[in-house]
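We modelled the chain as a single entity of 444 amino acids. Its sequence is:
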Amino acid sequence: MRRRPRGAHSAPRPARSVRPVGLAGALFVVGLAVGLLGATLAPPGSLSLSQLRTPGSPADSAAAEVLTSGSRGATDQSGSATDQASRRAATAESCRPAPLRRRAAQVLVVGLPDTTGADDPLAREVVELGVGGVFLSEVNAVDARQVRALAGGLQRRSAVPLLISTDEELGRVSSFRDLLGPSSSARALAQRPTRSVRARARDLGDQLADMGLTVDLAPVADLDAGPWRGVIGDRSFSGDPVAAGEYATAFANGLVDAGVLPVAKHFPGHGRAPGDVHLKPSSVEVSLDELMATDVQPFQAMVHAGVPIVMLGHVAYDALEPDRPASLSNASYSLLRDLGFTGVAMTDALGMGAVNGRWTYSEAAVMAVRAGADALLATDGRQARAMRNAIIEAVHAGRLDDARLNEAAARMLTLKGVDPQAMTCLDAPPLPQMARRAGVAADS
């Protein structure tokens, strides 16, 4: 948001000699005297000179320079606020959102199989489709220079800035291991002070930012103190809710220090799940009170610290919505918002077995947005067109509220520093603190 320059106003200098003045000059002198007298004697609520001046008169700008802020009065400020509200209301009434196809594509974050250049067919297709972001992994990486060229080319071709993401947790989940080298797991990092973890994440963020990446799908905020090779295992900083929250927040802050947006995952917690959702459905039987007192705590800490993106996992929770993955569950998104989260809620990859074994990409896309998702992650970008078309059809058929889609698209745009008004006719939602600190957008 642009701030109005603050300049000190100088008092007019005394005239060196008496010269004849024209009608405009006489009006200015009289108006100035009346205005200054009114500022001194008029009670609060009286009109100021700025409200009485004649538009277009030579005295208009000169008088405004002479008047101090105190002479404007409380009513002037109230009038200005009323005018702004009226303008916003008029804009809302006359605003027409962008075509549905553009808003539907904006919530997609897709991978690029068999793609190493911005001119490759799939890269061109998803950018022309208008997706909100892309996901880059080892299949897209030859070396740092090539990744930088790919990311830069995608951004240049896109009409709207892209979220360019990767999955770099360090340890055994490392999309760019061949480029960045081996690294310690979260559990190993947690043996150090949190300041060291933040510094290590800052180094990682610098490397990612240098290649044009803007989002890292890390850190893991799940609790797990079990075997290191478990589904979460040593990807977790700790099995203790407080420690996990502190270390995950330190890692997130390190990425933000480098200008990269972190993603807290996998809400509302994956550590208890007995199965691997990459392969098949998995559910957790635990009371909501216990879930809130344990698994949710690290996410609460990260929301409080201003994390900009939270990923919802595919584990189902009986206490929330039985037999429904959290990523497709309205109760799970509602719980996240109840924590005070105002950023982008993202699904885990919709191609995983827990989802794709039961629903198609298109079906899952509609279900996720309807449940409360703002960003849909699909590592196979060849599904992007079908997903977008399914969202469009769902809105036309009344199975998906257009307002819900606008809300999701507005959050995605705001996260990228784009005013969502032109596309969605919505004001920018509150931006989490880490997004502001990463330099994504100015205060709004």
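As a brief sanity check on the tokenised model: The radius of gyration is 27 Å. The chain is about 45% helix and 10% strand.
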